[in-house]
């Protein structure tokens, strides 16, 4: 018989060519949604022949479905408006926006803060303007555990204060956008925003065709370890072994990209159901913390190679430990992470 149509049919995905976006796009296509991606390709590989992002070509090849891509910057209101108008002309109007587009390097944000505020904060203002003009008032926002700043208690739940101790422009930009969405939702009751506070996303698609492979020196632990494993870098520097944690190294709540992507589908389903209104933040993490050395050990076991490392000084701005209470997402969205550290270390 006919499958029931999902309540959300057409999803516009900003930053859909990126790491988290492209994995989510695969799930959206698999779920039967119409997908429109807007990405300025500032942080993705462009396929020379088609001039589309490589990740999106692969997402379509993996699923056997098509999406619509626009190489547009979210700060370009006129171009973005045209995308919304075209979408409503060719398919039907956009039901909801998944908003991934942002710059995300903590260190770079300290060098060029205005570029980060323009892209992440002003970019979101432009997006909201165009959405409002087109009467689209549903958004799922890619937020971050960074909005909690320095944890006052662990595990972090959604009631933990935000914005205090956000030490870098990137983190502040993620916090500012949450505040904007909160104010928007209280001013206009038609708006619904689900803010997904990701903990530390890692891992790759099971096909081996999608993942995170930064061209520059990786800032984040997992891609760095992966590059050491394949011999592209000689050794890992472990930033500090004198934190008040089990083995002295930093503890984080790593979450598999596949689980994270799944969380966005649950959020979309919840978006149009009854009893959800205003601004809703949800942690997306496993609720379990792992130290740097635990990650090194797990990775080493997964690839059967030793990962050489040395203890280095603490990295400025780092916190000792961060992990979440993931029960709200379970209760409200019916979502829980399934994959453990071992699976996160499997890079095909
Ligand atoms: P990513 O860099 O892989 O993806 C972001 C995408 O957005 C890229 O394809 C980039 O080209 C695009 N983009 C950037 N600025 C744009 C603009 N002005 N207009 C149009 N497109 C633009 O990053 P990611 O890891 O996939 O992160 C996605 C979102 O998740 C970001 O909002 C990030 O802040 C958030 N987040 C990421 C992590 C993480 O560790 N990866 C953790 C927490 C939150
Ligand atoms: C993890 C642990 C490091 C690299 C960052 C952003 C955060 C969020 C996710 C988006 C820490 C240690 C790392 C290395 C190391 N992004 N480490 N050697 O700092 O928890 O979070 O990415 O919102 O906002 O700040 O992630 O992967 O950089 O570090 O020892 O070469 O690994 O000190 O304890 P982090 P990370």
TrEMBL record:
Cofactor: NAD(+)
SUPFAM superfamilies: NAD(P)-binding Rossmann-fold domains (SSF51735)
Pfam families found in the cross-reference section: GDP_Man_Dehyd
Keywords per UniProt: Carbohydrate metabolism, Galactose metabolism, Isomerase, NAD
Domain of life: Eukaryota
Keyword NAD found: yes
EC number(s) per entry: 5.1.3.2
InterPro entries to which the protein is assigned, alphabetical: NAD(P)-bd_dom, NAD(P)-bd_dom_sf, UDP_G4E
GO annotation, biological process: galactose metabolic process
Catalytic activity: UDP-N-acetyl-alpha-D-glucosamine = UDP-N-acetyl-alpha-D-galactosamine; UDP-alpha-D-glucose = UDP-alpha-D-galactose
Record GO terms (molecular function): UDP-glucose 4-epimerase activity; UDP-N-acetylglucosamine 4-epimerase activity
Boundaries of every NAD(P)-binding domain copy: 12-346
Pathway entry: Carbohydrate metabolism; galactose metabolism
Cross-referenced NCBIfam families: galE, PRK10675.1
Family: Belongs to the NAD(P)-dependent epimerase/dehydratase family.
Quaternary structure annotation from Swiss-Prot or TrEMBL: Homodimer.
Function: Catalyzes two distinct but analogous reactions: the reversible epimerization of UDP-glucose to UDP-galactose and the reversible epimerization of UDP-N-acetylglucosamine to UDP-N-acetylgalactosamine. The reaction with UDP-Gal plays a critical role in the Leloir pathway of galactose catabolism in which galactose is converted to the glycolytic intermediate glucose 6-phosphate. It contributes to the catabolism of dietary galactose and enables the endogenous biosynthesis of both UDP-Gal and UDP-GalNAc when exogenous sources are limited.
Protein name per the record: UDP-glucose 4-epimerase
Species name: Ranatra chinensis
